[in-house]
Amino acid sequence: ILNYDIMARFRRRTCIILLLFILFICSIMMALKTLRPDRAGFGDPFGLGLLPELQQRTVVLDNKQNSLNRVQGDTVTRVSNFHSIAVNTMKASVPPVNKLEEELSSPNYNFHIFYYSWFGNPQFDGKYIHWNHPLLPHWDPKIANNYPKGRHNPPEDIGANFYPELGSYSSKDPSVIEAHMKQMRSASTGVIVLSWYPPGMADENGEPTDDLVPVIMDYAHKYNLKVTFHIEPYKDRDDRSMYHNVKYIIDKYGGHPAFYRHKTSTGRFLPMFYVYDSYVTIPEIWANLLTVSGSQSIRNTPYDALFIALLVEERHKHDIHRSGFDGMYTYFATNGFSYGSSHHNWASLKAFCDSNNLMFIPSVGPGYIDTSIRPWNNHNTRNRVNGKYYETAFSAALLVRPEIISITSFNEWHEGTQIEKAVPKRTGQVVYLDYKPHKPNVYLELTQKWSEKYRKEQEQWLM
């Protein structure tokens, strides 16, 4: 009986000590939790930071301050309710850094992002443009008859599966342009690839936008971003018209401090032009413009540049080489949609480019969905998987060690490839997709994370 009583007291004492130890550990954990930064970033690689249960454990990127020290360029004026700061590399002293500047990573000029300035609304344009996009019929009438027809009716019903935080905005609105530049800068992208048609021309659902280029470049310069041009397949695009339009762009915009020039392996600084649907024109026509012996040759002239062709099918790589292009990009954010957009083909494409002195620029995207304008195209939808699809694309791109990565897109809302801020919205019978359980800026933060990862890995490639 005595031994039993001693053992019982020993067990009680042990339980009390264990309970006190657990309470001590819990109090320590609660104290540490209060020390967590207010703005913790995504610290875990390859999407772990996106898991909701792990969000409370993410940490600020260790190199954020180092990124700030690398900010170079011209005066950058911050607005809103934050303090303003000027960053001027001509000064020897380091200027003070305020809270807003801490949130803006340095631009990565090897991250190029496709940007569209074709949106309009009644306040700035007298009508809605592109937000009221028509539903496009399938080419097979038997299939087309099974799907709705007509146009979208903004502002509640827009031609997109997601809804922008800025609403059905106008690309002419200065506050919208500035918000876009700030978002792209916060994502640590460096070069805006601006969709461009010649003066007086536009896509079939839009209006001419060339007059907007100077304003976009001014705001880009304010945020230390650069602008290059994504030349769209305008009517009668050939070697002659391309020569005149490249000359027009360089003459009119080439002197702007935001005009992008790429440093080549030979040390030259050349403009860069992405050429969408380049495969529509035969190689012989392109060769007139892009080879030294061509009848309309732009080579070794004041208008020489780097021309990047769109690769869709595998055979296009040979046509691109014959045409005299300087490189290729894949554009589409749909893994498996085309040969070029399939991640598993990037290694062989990079090898082909390396052996033929071409640039390979893979295009990564956060997902794809265009059923708001092509309701019959469900089979090409790519679910975002809460950011994991985007991270998988970045991971595949880094494996081939590209000189440049392009991002599809900042704001191609029709195809659901945007990384611009989106918000939940339900109107009538329309329920828009959103970025939940994450915040509207989740894809900007992911882009910034991978921009930093790219910088680190690139340093290893060059060693």
TrEMBL record:
How this chain sits in the membrane, per its record, is: Single-pass type II membrane protein
Q: Which domain of life is it from?
A: Eukaryota
Q: Which CDD domains match?
A: GH99
Principal subcellular localisation of the protein: Golgi
State a single Gene Ontology molecular function. glycoprotein endo-alpha-1,2-mannosidase activity
- Identify its protein family: Belongs to the glycosyl hydrolase 99 family.
> This protein is called what?
Glycoprotein endo-alpha-1,2-mannosidase
